[in-house]
Design brief:
The chain is an alpha+beta fold and 407 residues long. The chain is built from 14 helices and 11 strands. The chain folds into 2 domains: 2-51 and 264-406, no CATH class; 58-258, no CATH class. Helix 11 runs antiparallel to helix 12 (369-386). Residues 67-76 have low confidence and may be disordered.
């Protein structure tokens, strides 16, 4: 019985191909938007969270509140000092302590200037190992910075791939950082993070000299000793900083976070973005649902004679209702299926073209099964509910009235 109703509903839709296609436009545009936007947002979230999470849960990052990166002088935020480094080293459970200097400065090569992210690189092997792990550094060409290097730099992959300048830079080339010549001794392999793929690593002393700064730090990265609890060490650090700066609890002017916490913050932000994107795409689904309802009402008016004949030969109200209800559900489901195909195709196109153009792995489309099946089920539900009232109206037409109205 159900199979017969399904075939009849499908046959009715194929007889009105143009109308069916026009009706489904709103549905498959909405579903395509949901699939493409959510898959790209999910891919971005997974990449960012993965990059922070790989740093491990045994590390802490200390920054003064409202720290950020921008052109010199654009952010009025106090920096950390050697006093803060010494304070951190005295806290129980702290192992390796690294002062990081992170700034943006002009970089010149052959009369072309770009503002690029600069990061200090420690000369202590243990500190260097932590930085390598946090960033995910692998050397593609040349070598890493070492103790005794002066005005030597390691540049990100974008300098090698012509993304920054029109010419590929290699080991031995010289560039100017803040008008001071430096020599490239190494090129980093692609990390997938645009910030570091376009960054420049310098020895700390060289970076201070190039930028004309005092001995300051933008952030302090530290590792926790084995056997110590990261949360306990973070609490001890907060207590030490509050006491040193004479601050009350809740009035801190500094932040202590783990890479995992930062990943969670990014995940929450991207989750909100995803919700907004789905909400916007949902407007198209609502329009599509209204289109299905309008089409089904029109179909009921056009097929009153057919309804009368079906009832006169024994069809029940439930049969008529099921027929029209199934037709509207099929419109939604087929529209959803087309939308899924279009959405997958569009997001993969954006991933391929965007990755090639920008040279980053952040544009990655991920298609979890709940997203695919959920979109298909949702489109069927939208179609079915949109056809509920027209189906109800068709089911309650009296046979004699239906036949008389059709004449």
């Amino acid at each position: 019985m159900m199979k017969d109703f399904f075939l009849l509903a499908f046959r009715n839709l194929t007889r009105r191909r143009l109308r069916s296609w026009l009706t489904m436009i709103g549905i498959f545009i909405g579903i395509a938007a949901v699939i493409s936007l959510v898959s790209l947002a999910q891919g971005l979230q997974d990449v960012i969270v993965g990059q922070f999470s790989r740093a491990g849960g045994d590390k802490l990052i200390i920054q003064n509140s409202q720290s950020g990166f921008g052109p010199p002088g654009s952010l009025a935020v106090s920096d950390l000092t050697d006093h803060d480094i010494d304070l951190v080293k005295k806290v129980k459970g702290v192992d390796v302590v690294i002062g990081r200097l992170l700034k943006v400065a002009p970089v010149e090569f052959q009369d072309s200037t770009q503002f690029r992210f600069l990061a200090s690189y420690p000369d202590d092997p243990r500190e260097a190992a932590v930085v390598n792990e946090v960033i995910g550094i692998n050397i593609l060409q040349g070598r890493q910075l070492k103790k005794g290097d002066h005005l030597k730099v390691v540049v990100g992959y974008e300098f090698f791939s012509k993304t920054v300048f029109s010419r590929t830079l290699n080991v031995g080339d010289r560039i100017q950082v803040n008008k001071i010549p430096v020599e490239i001794v190494g090129i980093m392999d692609k990390t997938g993070n645009p910030q570091f793929d376009g960054a420049i690593l310098l020895p700390y002393d060289s970076m201070v000299e190039v930028l004309g700064l005092k001995k300051i730090y933008s952030a302090i990265t530290l590792t926790v000793q084995k056997g110590s609890n990261t949360d306990d060490v973070a609490a001890a650090l907060k207590k030490a900083f509050r006491k040193d700066r004479n601050l009350k609890e809740g009035k801190e002017d500094f932040e202590i976070q783990t890479p995992t916490q930062i990943a969670q913050i990014f995940g929450n932000i991207l989750g909100v973005v995803q919700a907004v994107l789905v909400g916007i795409a949902g407007i198209s689904l609502l329009v599509g649902g209204i289109g299905i309802m309008n089409t089904m009402y029109t179909s009921v008016l056009e097929r009153t004679r057919e309804i009368g004949i079906l009832k006169s030969v024994g069809a029940r109200n439930s049969h008529i209702f099921l027929l029209f209800f199934m037709e509207s559900g099929l419109l939604g489901a087929v529209g959803g299926l087309i939308g899924i195909v279009l959405g997958v195709g569009f997001s993969k196109f954006v991933e391929i073209v965007g990755s090639a153009a920008l040279g980053t792995e952040l544009l990655r489309a991920i298609f979890p099964l709940p997203l695919i099946f959920g979109s298909l089920a949702f489109s069927f539900i939208i179609g079915s509910f949109s056809g509920f009232l027209p189906a109800y109206q068709a089911a309650h037409l009296k046979p004699v009235d239906a036949l008389r109205y059709a004449k």
